[in-house]
């Protein structure tokens, strides 16, 4: 196991995570069928997002909440979907990384999952 320390580590983590996501029965369809994600565009955004969140770099430009509202309109994104997303994130982290930054990545992802679930629910009312 290694520490989560660099942009290369973030890219590795994000790639491994989205391999799981794309194949997941609970949430994979959001990416593959609903949003029809272009992975060549999406993955670099996620590298920047997590690098910014974890290391304080300014490599991410965007509004992740705004990007999810149109998907939520097509197919409801519910609490259990975000719980599965978080479960896959934590599993991926624990398979490859340890230490303070890995724990921070779990905490930040948990906060994101809770906030996103709440915002998507409110948007459907």
Automatic annotation (TrEMBL):
<dbReference type="GO" id="GO:0020037">
    <property type="term" value="F:heme binding"/>
</dbReference>
<dbReference type="GO" id="GO:0046872">
    <property type="term" value="F:metal ion binding"/>
</dbReference>
<dbReference type="InterPro" id="IPR009050">
    <property type="entry name" value="Globin-like_sf"/>
</dbReference>
<feature type="binding site" description="distal binding residue">
    <location>
        <position position="118"/>
    </location>
    <ligand>
        <name>heme</name>
    </ligand>
</feature>
<dbReference type="GO" id="GO:0019825">
    <property type="term" value="F:oxygen binding"/>
</dbReference>
<dbReference type="Pfam" id="PF01152">
    <property type="entry name" value="Bac_globin"/>
</dbReference>
<protein>
    <submittedName>
        <fullName>Hemoglobin</fullName>
    </submittedName>
</protein>
<dbReference type="InterPro" id="IPR012292">
    <property type="entry name" value="Globin/Proto"/>
</dbReference>
<keyword id="KW-0408">Iron</keyword>
<keyword id="KW-0813">Transport</keyword>
<keyword id="KW-0479">Metal-binding</keyword>
<dbReference type="InterPro" id="IPR001486">
    <property type="entry name" value="Hemoglobin_trunc"/>
</dbReference>
<keyword id="KW-0349">Heme</keyword>
